[in-house]
Write a structure and sequence with these properties.
single chain, about 300 residues, alpha+beta, 9 helices, globular, disordered N terminus
């Protein structure tokens, strides 16, 4: 009888842990447009590295946060782009590069809790419900979550577009993961930080990896623009090949307004990373095509 009771208690406790996630997780996956079935979460190792990203198109923001376990702590690096809503009258936006960098430390047990929460979100199964009407919004945003163990991706979610009932099931899980990660770092003591060589190398590798994923996605146009602006501040010379490709691609007559802005931002990013300025003055009134050719020549000379 004692053996039976112990076994029953163990099974009951295990079932509760798998089927009843914490309220902090459940609140981020609630909608009248889908139902949720809570699956069995994976066990993510404590040394798994997490990246999240988010931003609002109309809000002028984009942020990267990196969680890197290191012995008895987890280093949390936050790189934030925020251009605000300052008007300008020049041909091109002023080259302000509004990027801030901060870093904090997180306790391993708090990080372990976050990883468990993300595992619950990742295991959730969402099913759309029948509806008589649909809702849409002009709110455009981006959410991104990537968790790796070594070089093996455990979670890899990316979405950009407009908030709405038809697409909510697509962005619900990455949005929930980003919200949980943002909540987990709210109480940390973030301080201004000068990027290390390793962190700049990571940023450049992230830029290259994500650019190849984003470059042809329709609703990522503003994400691409802000990635270029961010990498000019946070990256290193390893980002130059992608910036060169951005400046080399698409004949001028085939480029749209966003592609032209990407070229303008790439010129500014190359200038920062090489510490060599071949831009025409004033910068905000530059001749894009002539300056683009000069920058490409500069990059060829640096091979």
């Amino acid at each position: 009888m004692r053996t039976f009771l112990i076994l029953f208690a163990t099974v009951t406790a295990g079932s509760t842990a798998w089927s009843e996630p914490e309220d902090r997780v459940k609140q981020h996956l609630q909608s009248k447009y889908y139902t949720v079935t809570w699956g069995t979460p994976a066990a993510f190792g404590p040394n798994s590295e997490l990246e999240i990203g988010d931003g609002y198109g109309h809000g002028g923001t984009l942020g990267w946060v990196r969680f890197r376990p290191d012995k008895d702590r987890v280093d949390v690096l936050a790189i934030q782009f925020d251009e605000g809503r300052e008007p300008y009258e020049s041909k091109w936006p002023p080259d302000r590069a509004p990027v801030t960098v901060k870093r904090a430390r997180m306790k391993p047990d708090a990080y372990a809790t976050l990883l468990r929460d993300l595992a619950v979100v990742d295991a959730a199964k969402l099913k759309p419900v029948d509806r008589d009407s649909v809702g849409s919004s002009s709110t455009n945003f981006w959410v991104y979550t990537r968790l790796v163990a070594g070089k093996k991706p455990l979670i890899d979610h990316n979405w950009a577009g407009y908030q709405g009932s038809l697409t909510e099931i697509e962005y619900a899980k990455p949005q929930a993961a980003v919200a949980l990660a943002r909540d987990a770092v709210k109480g940390l003591d973030f301080k201004e930080h000068s990027l290390t060589d390793e962190e700049r190398s990571w940023a450049s590798a992230k830029f290259a990896r994500d650019w190849n994923k984003f470059k042809d996605l329709e609703y990522h146009w503003w994400v691409r623009e802000r990635y270029i602006q961010t990498i000019g501040v946070a990256g290193d010379k390893a980002a130059l090949p992608i910036l060169r490709d951005i400046l080399s691609s698409n004949p001028p007559k085939d480029r749209g307004a966003s592609e032209d802005r990407c070229a303008y931002y790439a010129i500014n990013a190359v200038t920062r990373l090489t510490k060599t300025d071949v831009r025409s003055k004033p910068v905000e009134e530059m001749d894009l095509e002539k300056t683009r050719a000069k920058v490409l020549e500069l990059l060829r000379d640096r091979k």
